[in-house]
Design goal:
five-stranded mixed sheet, 2 domains, single chain, Rossmann fold, binds '5'-O-(N-(L-prolyl)-sulfamoyl)adenosine, 13 helices, alpha+beta
Amino acid sequence: MRLSRYFLPVLKETPSEAQIASHRLMLRAGMIKQSSAGIYSWLPMGFKVLRKLENIVHEEQVRAGHIPMLMPTLQSADLWRESGRYDAYGPEMLRIRDRQDRDLLYGPTNEELITDIFRSHVGSYRDLPLTLYHVQWKFRDEIRPRFGVMRGREFLMKDGYNFDLTKEDALHAYNRHLVSYLRTYERMSLQAIPMRAESGPIGGDNTHEFLVLAETGESGVFYDSEITDLRFGDREIDYDSVEQCADILEEFTSRYARTDDMHDQAAFEAQVPEDRRREARGIEVGQIFYFGTKYSEPMGATVQGPDGKPVPVHMGSHGIGVSRLIGAIIEASHDDKGIIWPEGVTPFHAGIVNLKQGDSEADAACEALYAALTALGLEPLYDDRDERAGGKFATMDLIGLPWRITVGPRGLKNGVVELTSRRTGESEELPPEQAVERLAKIYL
Ligand code: P5A
């Protein structure tokens, strides 16, 4: 992409309404624009990152054996009356009436809708286990939408639902989700720690939240510091292996790690040596639930069991806050100049800065770099505007691409360009072909 032809409306001034770094930087980097409280337009660069995160989520879901689909944003109130949640959900639910006077709602979550699909089409235990998921916009009329996409009213969620014959099978689905989520967050360069939490309006008594530690996080957390040393890494996983998934759950959750609503000071002190006890704040980027027959029973989602008798299925649901993740990643990775994208989620792989636009050699070298990177399947962002070098560097620092190639007449006389890491600020002079090779090695 050539910056002169892109739509990247960066702001010079720091917007006064933004209280935390990620919100400030997303506005300044031209990623989002608020349309009303807690509701945002995703401008091209913000949209690009959102799509990248969504793709990672899809890849890891499919790897775990879960099946993608798409349900609508608007749902019938009648389904929610069946589960009893239409009244229980309260003012967070956006209720809508259509021209026939039928009650609809903008879905805050999809347990009822998926249970209805299941009961309409699945009749036998032989069709289990089954896990369906989608990535779809949700609406929750939060009392205090704030921090940009972090606590929005309209937000993008991946939500999945498992259907199993027995509690035991459903607990395997729970463990499998925990494992797939650990992998998902690590691919985004985030450390999200599973912590025991309250289940709230979704229900059930078995639930973990995934928290990214950050001072600006909205949840209070208590944990054993050893937990932060755990890494999922590139271990091979057989998602069908009950034992392997259970072992990983055990490894990542056997220490004390809880959100404040589940905190038990006496247990904390008994289980964790004093020097390892930590109290901090975290951003909740996902949550998994096992709630058994809470929805299947009242809604009649049964299958014929091996003995021919109908039994309600055991269910759980699992959510990732896809749009919130962008805020979490920026909170975890920025400096006073701007965002620092991890390579796995960056909107463009590298920036090309032409120090002397209009100089035939500099222009030709930039074009050649652009073509070489594009031919490799990488996406460069070429700042081809007729602007001062200082302004171009400031924009690149603000939007946070991990690598910058700087091209100018002086370097070209010696046959070199400059490759700079956004994270470390370190620069290296090297021939343009080597800069391309270096990026290929990093990304491909
Ligand atoms: C699990 C999937 C559920 O809704 N039902 C379907 C279950 N869980 S949850 O914890 O309530 O939400 C899942 C994740 O969505 C993100 N999230 C939000 N993101 C931005 N703004 C909001 N207002 C918001 N509310 C929830 C969180 O990451 C949460 O973990």
